[in-house]
Amino acid sequence: MTTLSSALARSVPATDKRAKPRVTPARVGAHVFLTTAAVLWLAPILWAFYTSLRSYNETAKYGYLSLPHHLTFENFRNAFTQANMLHFFWNSVLVTVPAVVITLFLASCVAFVLTRFSFWFNIPLLIIFTAGNLLPPQTLITPLYRIYLTVHLPTFISSNGLLYNSYAGLIVINASFQLGFCVFVLSNYMKSIPIDITEAALLDGASVWTRFWNLTLPLCRPALAALATLLTTWIYNDFFWAITLISSGDKRPITSALANLQGQYFINQNLLAAGALITAVPTLVVYILLQKQFIAGLSLGSSKG
Amino acid sequence: MIGFPLIVDLFFIWFPAAATVFLSFTTWSGIGGLKAIHADGVQNYVQAATNYPPFWPAVRHNVLWLAVFLIIATPLGILFAVVLDRNIRGSRIYQSILFLPVMLSLALIGIIWELIYAPQYGLLNSLLGRNGQSNFIDWLGNPKLNLWAVLAEASWRQVGYVMVLYLAGLKAVDPTLREAALVDGATAWQTFWRVVFPVLRPINVVILVVTVIESLRAFDIVYITNGGQNGLELLSVLITKNIVGQQSRIGFGSALGVVLLVISLVPIITFLVQQLRQEQRR
User: Fold this and answer.
1) Superfamily of B37-281 according to CATH
2) Of A9, A173, A245, B225, which is most buried, counting CB atoms within 10 Å of its CB?
3) Nearest CA of chain B to the CA of A274: how many Å?
4) How many structural domains comprise chain A?
5) What is the residue range of A161's domain?
6) Which candidate from B9, B114, B115 shows the least CB-CB separation from A176?
7) A4 pLDDT exceeds 60?
8) Is A42's CB within 8 Å of B100's CB?
9) Residue B148, CB half-sphere, CA atoms under 13 Å: how many?
10) Do the Cβ atoms of B94 and B164 come closer than 8 Å?
């Protein structure tokens, strides 16, 4: 029996072009380990999903740990309309989209200068940007909060005339804070692009802007795509800046509005679960469609350095 | 091209960081403009250390947070990466599942886990049969338990994060190194510790930096769980509490900020030194 199965295992590579690993105790152990972990890792999300699919009356009667009698998307519909989620989603869009675009543009400019020209200040600048991104946000918040209350904006940008409690303020801080990471990743990426291309263009009399916009940026597309995915998720998921720098509940992006939701539905777990899961939808879309980009962005930040 | 981004970064990141240090030696309620700022020496620090009950618990919790990340979450993430890197069937699926929590916001993670920890309706107590009126375990309410409960949530995410970062590093290791080790008769264990791990020194530093920074930044989960009190005090929460609201104590909050800043400079400098070293090698 053992010989047969090992013979079978050995015969597999002949039929499959990729060499399939042999069945060994270590491999079986690895699968058991990984399967256990996968189940444990999925459990919290599946539990939230299961809870959200059941009606309050049913769980009140039979308990949460019971077989379903009737599954429904009712909670999702109720949470979506009662908590006015569309509005909070829109707030998130208003903050995330400009913040991502601005961050990527500014970071590409900096990275281009740092990698295509050799000034004495290149390394100090890279340090300033990179280190800035590593600071915990809480070390900045005290003065930042005061700055936000002091800086006046024209009312067509901010309805209350201040950086505080305005979308513009939230965009600015998210962009500034993420700038460092993007400069770091993009300058590493640009370093790997042969300089000859832009030098040839220089001889042809191309302006700095042409070399940047028409020659360098298109070559950075993979890095920009990866960073855009990463930034969208991070800024969408931001909680701290929105909690501290936006005072009125109805201006908050959806992630920070979760706190309201929690207060509203603390007795109805089913509705809370549904509402919470709705906020995850955009990041789950990224997860399903753009996971490779996301991971590529993370690895660019960690291993190319 | 570089001027504007630099000004933005200096004004919104480095100026506040410097101002935190400056303000920590002053008293200011925020009322009466900049003229109302008074120098106060190290009084804020003295007060934090001697006359502010949540301070030492917060420090202890931050240290514990870091310890759990360093001893459990990060090594577990590395272990997953190493196992997944061994050409296991379905490794993409495992990887995706373990990575899923990284996509979710920490605030959302806090809510999802409340459904598990809830005293009477939660999954955990229901499974343990401890969901009665009198015998329930209050995972998030009991100050002796809640930090551990929240750390399980944070680790749930951190493991996947470390795994992905490490996996990228492992994929970049020259396969001939491993083959050479195999030819020399090294076991998988020896190959990893003697060959792969040393080669991955740069990524090891990144992982270490990420681990320390993430544990200093911890805020969202405890804030959404109970506002960061009753066993869940963290430095980050205390800072925030002192600036928002009527009775803001800006100097005092800044002093707490400086404590966090000084600690976070350790991993930041470690990271920069490594980067500069690599830069010079090129």
Assistant:
1) MetI-like (1.10.3720.10)
2) A173
3) 10
4) 1
5) 79-303
6) B9
7) no
8) yes
9) 6
10) no
